[in-house]
TrEMBL record:
CDD domains from the UniProt entry: WHTH_GntR (cd07377)
Biological classification of the source: Bacteria, Bacillati, Actinomycetota, Actinomycetes, Propionibacteriales
Pfam families to which the protein is assigned, alphabetical: GntR, UTRA
Highest rank taxon of the organism: Bacteria
Organism in which the protein naturally occurs: Actinopolymorpha cephalotaxi
Name of the protein in its database record: GntR family transcriptional regulator
Length: 283
């Protein structure tokens, strides 16, 4: 009798049973990690029920270990289909590289769906972030960013129209913000100061990103500046935690007490105080 798509092929497993002397959840996680490493991205894993029956453990244990691997980006829950091997994380190399340019460099097709685009007066908080006068016109742009059609992030960006007039007239499904600023205004991102939080998505964001409500995401609030120190944009965006991680490097400035900088770190801060370079890292 042929197996169904959710049944276990014994030849794919490193072991057929769990040891009685070790935590069963830990053993199952190792087995599933090994299985995911040998299967191609998108390959369907056995169902929770099949795994529980095969290894003679509770479905609660199976569900917990699968969720840990989903959180770690090893597996992915595809709604209406099952649990599959996750795609490699095609994240930005850093916060100063445009999403579109970085995806193309990785051989992926970047995409954008404009969720909203409006011109609004800058309130006090936004005016402070953009370093403009309150009431100044600001382009508020919200896009769903995709890679090979898969949703990656919900990006919310604010740009001063007083400094960059005409941006509100563009079709942003076909344009990169950083590339447009360089082509039209001759400015490029040089530094970015970011605040990064681990959060659970709200229901509408979970639907947009095609993740479960209990899938951790990265909320990034950043202000990007050009080489002269002027603000280019302020961002508040939500990135899928199963497709992105963050690499932070810190370097102590030479003027601080304690051990001198050893040169192993790198960042935008230079040697005049604490510098920190926070960037998204592909894995």
């Amino acid at each position: 009798m042929s197996r169904t798509r959710h049944e276990i092929d014994p030849s794919t497993l490193t072991t057929g049973a769990l040891s009685a002397g070790r935590p069963k959840g830990h053993q199952l996680r190792k087995i599933l990690e090994d299985l995911a490493g040998r299967l191609p991205p998108g390959a369907l894993l056995p169902s929770e029920r099949v795994l529980a029956d095969h290894f003679e453990i509770s479905r609660t244990t199976v569900r917990q270990e699968i969720q840990r691997l989903v959180t770690d980006g090893v597996l992915f829950r595809r709604h209406g289909h099952g649990t599959v091997v996750a795609e490699p994380r095609p994240a930005h190399t850093d916060l100063l590289t445009s999403f579109s340019r970085d995806m193309r460099a990785r051989g992926l097709s970047p995409g954008s769906r404009v969720l909203s685009s409006s011109v609004e007066p800058a309130g006090p908080r936004l005016a402070t972030r953009l370093e403009v006068e309150p009431g100044s016109p600001v382009l508020h742009l919200v896009r769903l960013r995709t890679a090979d059609g898969d949703p990656m992030a919900r990006e919310s960006t604010d740009v001063s129209l007083a400094r960059f007039p005409g941006l509100d007239e563009l079709a942003w499904e076909r344009h990169s913000l950083f590339d447009t600023l360089e082509e039209r205004f001759g400015v490029r991102p040089a530094t970015s100061e970011a605040r990064i939080l681990a959060v659970l998505p709200e229901a509408h964001d979970a639907e947009l990103l095609e993740v479960a409500l209990d899938q951790p995401c990265l909320l990034i609030e950043a202000v990007t500046r050009d080489g002269g120190g002027r603000v280019l944009e302020a961002e508040r965006s939500l990135y899928r935690g199963d497709r992105y991680d963050v690499l932070a490097r810190a370097r102590r400035g030479a003027g601080h007490h304690g051990d001198p900088a050893d040169g192993n770190g790198s960042g935008n801060g230079g040697g005049n105080g604490n510098g920190r370079d926070v960037r998204q890292k592909a894995t």
